[in-house]
Amino acid sequence: MFNFNRGKNKPMEKEKGLILSLLPLRDVVIFPHMIIPLFVGREKSINALESAMKEENDIFLSTQKDAQKDDPDESDIYEFGTLGSIIQLLRLPDGTVKVLVEGKRRGVIKEYLPNPDSFLVRIEQLEEIIVEGETVKKEALIRNIIEAFEHYSKLSRKVPGEILASISSISDPAKLSDVVASYLTIKIKEKQDLLETVNVIERLEKIYGFILSEVEVMEVEGRIKKRVKKQMEKTQKDYYLNEQMRAIQREMGEEDSAKSEIKEIEKRLKEKKLSKEARKKVEKEAKKLKMMAPMSAEATVIRNYIDWILDLPWYDTTKNENTLSDSEKILEEDHYGLKLVKERILEYLAVQSLSEKNKGSILCLVGPPGVGKTSVAKSIARATNRQFVRLSLGGLRDEAEIRGHRRTYIGAMPGKIIQLLKKAGSNNPVFCLDEIDKLSSDFRGDPASALLEVLDPEQNIAFNDNYLEVDYDLSDIMFITTANIIQTIPDPLQDRMEVIRIAGYTEYEKLNIARSYLVPKQTEKNGLTKDNITFTDGALLTVIRKYTREAGVRNLEREIASICRKVAKKIVSTGLKKRVKITSKSIEKYLGIQKFRHGETEGTDRIGLTIGLAWTEAGGELLDIEAMVVRGTGKPILTGNLGDVMQESAQAALTYVRSRADDFGLPRDFHKKSDIHVHVPEGAIPKDGPSAGIAMVTSIASAFLKKKVRSDLAMTGEITLRGRVLPIGGLKEKLLAAHRGNIKTVVIPSDNKKDLADIPGKVLKDLEVITVDNVDEVLDIALIKEDKPEGKMAAVDSGKIQISAGAGPAPL
Q1: Which residue in 44, 209, 19, 15 sits closest to 117, CA to CA?
Q2: DSSP run (H or E) holding 106
Q3: Which of 436, 480, 456, 451 is nearest to 341 (CA)?
Q4: What pLDDT is attached to residue 755?
Q5: Among the listed residues 451, 530, 439, the one whose alpha carbon sits nearest the alpha carbon of residue 485
């Protein structure tokens, strides 16, 4: 061991600073006033120490940026470091050197000098900066640091006790900051930042911040350790008590509850018919359960999982003992009409009776509210002798509701498909997926995509629920989905279903439904009998026509229920014993004033007013389209909350009329002196679509030609600029709306003639349906021909219709 007297000789000094050997440090930053032992093994570092010893000089201590680098170059070493003196040096047997160094003051490397054996640098010593006038702030920081460091040392337990006493006696803020910094367990970069901070007040502030941060981290660590220790003690206590309970039960001759539970699982597994994959999975989980503590959380999860698999109806099915005629009778008993649905179900039952391999069908019933889509699914279950389960998809956003959650989550469960199968207790129920057109999606996934597997006959033979983790066969289930509109259902999902459209009911059908189903149902539901109340057909027709306006019968049932409740109240309050007869004249006494005008249009033929036909989610509707010519500059005005497509139809209609000005007997500049205002009433309701095209062109032509439009006529059809009438959709609903509105004649496109096959015969009997190919035919039918004076024509001047001399008008 060698001892050296520090400062015996002065180091080499030139004009530009001190020239010293450089010792690169790894994973340590040495501050002034810090004494630390170092183990040196690299050749260049040992040469630097030997050079410093030989010259009896100080040595410059600077930290490497990357501690993993064994042979650093100049760019790998921080410029700022500490001038240090060698206190002791000891050569070890393995060739390394143990050296004890003391930091003296800060310095910065100005230049690396050529030296093959070790790093030789010219450095500049740095002076500590203390700004005058910050005495109070300095004293406050010193006190705070000493107090915070005492707290830190108590939590850390790595700071020797004597250091606390020595720190409290340090009055020099620079020395205090360096001594405290050397004992902080912070990152190397943070320590280097402190070393490079020459301003003492700024350095004290940084150190104080580091101490507070470390204290906060250590306090959280302490709380975590206490919590973990407490939990471990509780677990050990529970284990000890459980072992004691087992020992007591064995002494008393009682069977271990955990063992009895395992035996029960094994018994159920032996009796239950499962798929090979499910059986293998249950056996594996039961084996794991045997080796677990019965009261552990994992054991509870496994028990729940096994219960779910064993409770599912893997091969449990219900047999259909009804004949085809029995099933048909049940369907007719429950619902009036719905011919297509009933026919499709009977076809399915017929095929099933001939082929055992026939898989479950997937039907999609599309129609307006209240037509019986959900109730017919229940009726199908009764006709086929199957269990019925229903899942409402309206507003469903989470994919896990269909596929289930993985068992890794707390409180995980299978998806609704598996849950409802367990509830049904059979593997071939009628499964109603209600409101499939109202599915939503968000960050949790897309339920519609999850349903692709459920509703695909080629895939649902191996449906994989995230919770079960085994394949489940859904192919025997009869899936029936319901929707109001089909446009919002994704195309891939539509492709997997057989769509059956259910249009609204005619008045005749509603009357039969009310007489045969709704009145008996509400009579019984409200505690009445046939001896208490009776409805005439006239009364029911009045309710249908003047108190409801819908495609289905939901509101009709509500109105009948309201009448029954009022009769029940009358019987209870007055003791009435004679039967109450509800007639068309007495309806207003029970339901109040009439809500709708049945078959009451404008009543008289008017100029610029045409009745169009519209399709809505609730069925068909009559749509008044008004047009009026006013003085102006030729600007079209479109109002009534019209969508882009409907506005374009109005523009096309106006352009068509302008293009036919000569044929209509109108001056060529008639549009420049007047504005045409097209309005569709009920402006609060958004309207869109191209099918009002012919109604708009009729209203515009009527307004300009001053010819009245038939008030008993309704029309629907899209137009082109050349006057062709194109086909439209929703014809059945539109014709039913015309029939409900007491319209006598309906004009439709010729291409829709094929769709008349779906229209009830009674509706076609009451309506005169005229098919057209072009607008000229429409105007010829719709506009009322009035006798005009010879040689006169209708013309527009400054927004006014006048009779002027000229050739007679061209035939329409």
Answers
A1: 44
A2: strand 97-113
A3: 480
A4: 87
A5: 439
Residue 480's H or E segment, with its range, is strand 478-483
Which of 371, 452, 378, 443 is closest to 417 using CA atoms? 452
The end-to-end CA distance of the chain, in Å, is: 125
**Catalytic positions:** 691, 734
SS3 450: helix
Strand (E) or helix (H) holding 203: helix 200-252
Q: Which residue has the higher pLDDT, 810 or 212?
A: 212
In whole angstroms, what is the distance from residue 314 CA to residue 317 CA? 9
What is the DSSP annotation of 616-666?
A: ETTEEEEEEEEEEEEESSS-EEEESSB-HHHHHHHHHHHHHHHHTHHHHT-
d(CA 96, CA 90) in angstroms, rounded, equals 9
Contact 765, 687 (CB under 8 A): no
Report how far Cα 49 is from the mean position of its chain's Cα atoms.
69
CA distance 387 to 372: 19
Residue with tokens 């389209």: 625
Q: Return the closest-CA partner of residue 40 out of 90, 115, 84.
A: 90
| Residue 800 predicted with pLDDT over 60 | no
Dihedral angle of Cα 112, 116, 120, 122, to the nearest 10 degrees:
-40
Nearest to 775 by CA among 678, 653, 664, 658: 653
Write down how long the chain is: 812
Sign of the CA dihedral running 64, 67, 70, 73? negative
How many angstroms separate the CA atoms of 791 and 663, rounded?
A: 15
Question: What's the token pair of residue 485?
Answer: 């509109």
Nearest to residue 465, comparing CAs of 430, 494, 422, 426? 422
Query: CB neighbours of 351 closer than 8 A, spacing ≥ 6?
Result: 358
Determine which helix (DSSP H) or strand (DSSP E) holds 327, and give its type and residue range.
helix 324-334
Secondary element (H or E) of residue 347 = helix 339-354
H helix intervals, 361-459: 373-383, 400-403, 416-424, 447-454
Spatial distance between the Cα atoms of 162 and 172, rounded to a whole number of angstroms: 18
Q: Do the beta carbons of residue 686 and residue 641 sit within 8 Å?
A: yes
Q: Mean pLDDT over residues 318-330, rounded?
A: 83
Which amino acid belongs to residue 76?
Answer: D
- The model's pTM is 0.57
Cross-strand pairs, 768? 745
Give me 557's structure tokens.
């049932």
Question: Which residues are CB-contacts of 777 (< 8 A; sequence separation ≥ 6)?
Answer: 725
At residue 443, what is the residue type?
Answer: F
pLDDT of 749 strictly over 90: yes
CA distances from 636 to 647, 651, 662, 671, 707 (A): 10, 8, 20, 9, 20
**Could you count the other beta carbons within 10 Å of the beta carbon of residue 531?**
9
Query: CA–CA separation, 138 vs 518, rounded Å?
Result: 91
* DSSP, res 496: T
**Strands 745-749 and 713-715, how do they pair?**
parallel
DSSP single-letter state for residue 784: P
Q: How confident is the model at residue 666 (pLDDT cuts 50, 70, 90)?
A: confident
DSSP character string of 563-624: HHHHHHHHHHHH---SPEEE-TTTHHHHH-S-SS-TT-S-SS-EETEEEEEEEETTEEEEEE
Q: Which helix H or strand E contains 805, and what residues bound it?
A: strand 800-805
pLDDT tens string 555-608:
999 999 999 999 999 888 887 778 889 998 888 889 988 887 765 555 688 899
* Rounded CA separation 21/120 (Å): 5
Alpha helices per DSSP H over 706-796? 731-740, 761-766, 775-782
On whether the CB atoms of residues 207 and 184 are closer than 8 A, the answer is yes
